[in-house]
Design goal:
The chain crosses the membrane at residues 12-37. It comes from Fusibacter bizertensis. Residues 10-52 form the TadE-like domain. This protein is of the alpha+beta class. The chain is 52% helix and 20% strand. α2 (11-55) packs antiparallel against α3. The radius of gyration is 24 Å and the shape is rod-shaped.
């Protein structure tokens, strides 16, 4: 009878079943964070390109077009570009700021449940108009 009580054949299976969901959540979180960080870097680059276009004396519409051309792996419909000051109020030597706001949509549904829907990424870059 004592021999049957010490049999632990199923113990590792139970421990594995308890740990796997936590490990999967961590792995999916790391992958999701990687995609989000990639989007952040893409938006930062687009912001730099747009403000550089403006600092060289081009118009706001040219800067927005340049920002859209720079973004390749994100949905351009979820991106909002704000330029301050606008064409009319900007003079040589002034600082101009381009702010890009993007609503990042999570790839996995349970990450949406944890964070409550979309996550907003906002980047901004400032340069002096030449």
């Amino acid at each position: 009878m004592k021999r049957k009580l010490k049999n632990e054949n199923g113990q590792s299976m139970v421990e594995f079943a308890l740990i796997v969901p936590l490990l999967l959540l961590i792995i999916v979180g790391i992958i999701e964070f990687g995609f989000m960080f990639s989007g952040y870097l893409t938006l930062t680059n687009a912001s730099r390109e747009a403000v550089r276009t403006i600092s060289l004396g081009r118009s706001d519409s040219a800067a927005i077009l340049r920002a859209n051309d720079t973004i390749v792996n994100l949905d351009k419909d979820q991106m909002l570009v704000k330029i301050d000051p606008s064409d009319a109020a900007r003079e040589q030597g002034d600082s101009v700021t381009v702010t890009i706001t993007y609503d990042y949509t999570f790839l996995t549904p349970f990450m949406e449940a944890i964070f409550g829907g979309d996550f907003q990424i906002e980047v901004s870059t400032t340069m002096r108009v030449e």
